[in-house]
Design a protein that fits this description.
With about 250 residues, the chain is an alpha+beta fold. It has 6 helices and 6 strands; from the N terminus they run H-H-H-E-E-E-E-E-H-E-H-H.
């Protein structure tokens, strides 16, 4: 019985004509690659895939600090995996350019922009010490529908990791904000109790309205603030994810 890898090799062999292919072992750097393509006999064919010009669809590239990998407003179909160094996603927020994410080894960049077929929405530049990447020309998926299916699966796993990491970070931000809010509220309650005690000791009459359960009132306030804070942070998270994913 013919294996999946053998079938793929037969499909890809006619297109495996790259003049300067990368070392197939570099593919191990990509998280989940060995899970999706466990048969390493297939890898030499993948790195040798090319167009009619003989240029490989998978290339190893090195960028100096500040050099652009992706340019905002441009259209291309390149997806990058960081091999060494880091790459910064730069977006304009209120007219100022800010680094909204710094991609490290193993991270994927530019995938959603390619999958959606839209222009880049942010710049991506090499970090302080430059960055080495594996660059995938997504035209590689046109060589075989089966290959495309496996590569889309690979991208899906990376996107899932991105969403999980972004969600975890936002939860930490919200948790820290609520902790600070709780501490300040506790201090306020204690001060109000001290004030009430002092007024009673000096025989100062306290109106009925002052006897309202302050803890209960503050509890409602905290719940309202928590809800607003969660909404704002999650909305900010969504905006950042959009910028991150579509680059």
């Amino acid at each position: 019985m013919t294996s999946i890898s053998e079938n793929l090799i037969k499909e890809l062999a006619p297109f495996a004509k790259a003049k300067a292919p990368v070392d197939p072992n570099l593919l191990k750097i990509i998280p989940y690659f060995e899970t999706i393509f466990p048969d390493q006999k297939l890898w030499p064919y993948l790195v040798r895939l090319s167009g009619d010009d003989g240029r490989a669809y998978i290339e190893y590239k090195r960028y100096k600090s500040g050099q652009k990998l992706i340019a905002k407003g441009k259209f291309d179909q390149m997806i990058y995996w960081v091999v060494e160094g880091s790459a910064q996603v730069v977006a304009k927020i209120k007219v100022q350019s800010k680094v909204i994410h710094e991609a490290q080894k193993g991270e994927c960049l530019g995938e959603l922009g390619v999958l959606k077929g839209i222009i880049r929405t942010a710049d991506v530049v090499a970090g302080k010490n430059g960055v080495d990447v594996l660059e995938f020309d997504w035209a590689i998926t046109e060589k075989s529908p089966n290959l495309g299916k496996y590569l889309f699966h690979l991208i899906a796993l990376h996107l899932a990791d991105k969403l999980e990491n972004a969600y975890s970070k936002q939860l930490k931000i919200i948790a820290n904000s609520i902790l600070v809010l709780h501490e300040k509220t506790s201090q306020l309650i204690e001060r109000n109790r001290a004030l009430e005690q002092s007024m009673m000791e000096h025989s100062i009459m306290i109106g009925k309205e002052f006897h309202v359960d302050q803890e209960q009132a503050l509890s409602h306030a905290i719940a309202s603030i928590k809800e607003s804070l969660s909404f704002l942070k999650l909305q900010e998270s969504q905006d950042n994810l959009d910028k991150l994913g579509v680059v």
